[in-house]
Amino acid sequence: MTAVGILLLSAYQIIDHASPAISKFGLGFLFSTEWLPNFNVFGAGTMLYGTLISSFFALLLGAPIAIAIGLYLSLLAPKGIRGVISPMVEMLAAIPSVILGFWGILLLAPFVQKHVEPFLHDTLGFIPLFGAPQTTGASIFTASLILTIMIIPIIASISRDLFQAVPRDVQDGASALGATRWEVVRGIVLPTTSSGVIAASLLGLGRALGEAIAVAQVIGAGEAIKTSLFETGDTLAARIANQFPGAITEMHKASLYYLAAILLVIGLASNLCAQWIGRRFDYRRMAAR
Amino acid sequence: MNSEQEDVRESPFDPAAPLTPTGNLRRRRAVSRVAESGATFAAVLAVGVLAIVVYSVVVHGASALSLDFLLEGAPNGIGPALVGTAEIVAIATLFAVPLGVLVALYLVEFGSGRLAMPIRLALDVMNGYPSIIVGVFIYALIVEATQSQSGIAASVALAIIMLPIVARGTEEVLRLVPDSMREASDALGVSRWRSVLTVILPSAVGGIATASILAVARAAGETAPLLLITSNNPGISVSLNPFEAVPNIPVTIYRLSEEANPEGFTRAWGAGFVLLAFIMAANVFARVLLNRSRRKMAG
Hints:
The complex is a heterodimer of chains A (289) and B (299). By secondary structure, chain A is mainly alpha-helical. Chain A has one domain (2-152, 205-265). Chain A has ten helices and no strands. Chain A has helices spanning 2-25, 45-76, 79-94, 97-124, 140-165, 168-176, 181-210, 213-218, 236-243, 250-288. In chain A, α4 packs across α5 (140-165). Chain B has 299 residues and is mostly helical. Chain B has a single domain, classed as MetI-like (MetI-like fold, Orthogonal Bundle), CATH 1.10.3720.10. Chain B contains twelve helices and no strands. Chain B has helices spanning 2-10, 23-62, 67-71, 79-110, 113-127, 131-146, 151-176, 179-187, 192-220, 224-229, 249-258, 262-298. In chain B, α9 runs antiparallel to α12 (262-298) and α11 runs antiparallel to α12 (262-298). Chain B starts with a helix and ends with a helix. At the A-B interface, α1, α2, α3, α4 and α5 of A face α2, α5, α6, α7 and α9 of B.
């Protein structure tokens, strides 16, 4: 009961504290890109864009890698190696975000700025997303990479468990009919687990959307929406982490609460979607037995 | 490739011919091999990233480490922050573990179907709750009401983050307790709560400890809520009063990483090293404990 209570109370508290900003800026808050604490003008557009785009790229990069890791750990790896790599992948999830972010800004960002961004700009520069690299590595792109590292272990360990639950005899049957290992994966393992994998990816997405500290460290707290991924930006969670302790006016604080409320809604939506798909998947498998 | 296929079809079947893969099969095998090596590469990549992060923390952190660094206050050391983190996490554990175990007991031993479902859903949602949201929530609830940052509020926030980990972990081991033990206890006429206390909990204690350690490891590195709730103590000397802001490791690292100060970076690496070492050790310990209690349950 407490658990349900905490959830409801937290939603109420946040929306209640956001109400001055909600009533002043209304829904236009979502699209306005002006955030000027000194003039008491606030809008979430920049942060909303930054949150969505960085999480989207993290998922785009992370999900295939994580699913491949899940496949490797459940179907390919010899038992001894699995026993070593599996815990290591989970250990990756245990690294605190503040350490990952610190590593990101000191070591990953300069590397990305010197080597990865010029390469992407030269080869894919015709896409406006891959603009010219900036002077520091603090960018939406670097934030996406950090988020990728954070969501891989989540998706990988869930999909590993899913793949292991696929009945062995069905896979052996396909092999007996002459299917190669990849065809078994493609034809049996992935289709039977697809909804579970989607649910796992949504959980990963939820994690990426809500990550505050590591993103705040590497994204550079930009103030405008830029087309290029290599420019600075900001996310909802990172903006809250950066400005909440030093908010200058009541309206500033209320607007930060408003950001939290938006984040709450997006985070809950992706999380509930994941739960819903995951549960449906459970029931279907139970019915099949 | 197509022509080869047709060749096969056109040639009369010769049972004596050796079984060699045709072009098509060769292609399918190649695709399979590419996919397999892709998956292997992904696993190596993940382990590589872990190795790189740990390596850089160890290399940069080790140079900052010394006894003085661990004992002294800011700006030379992280002593007060270490003590503060230990205190905040310990109080959070006092909140979260009993509550989490009770929730799990309710779900497994006493839960009626109707209430168990929303509670389980709420726990899962809480598990995916962004920690900054927990921070904002506790700020609104406690810090704004009391007009001051406090260690105790941070403990409450961490407890909220720990609760689903403890509850779900405990629930899993409680489900592993064989029903025959419950039935034997019932048959002896033992009341429900006594059989929970004397039969079920003792056999699940290993799993509960595992879940609690994992929760502690998670809470120790949590930064976002602490930044809002207990961040305005610079950590010059040890302060244990939980009703004031308490210095702590994660916020120390965050603050140092935001300042462009090479000496600060060294100290942040050092603090990160200590934190990471603790978290990794806790994770390994939890895993060992889990394996042992699993074996005990099985045999």
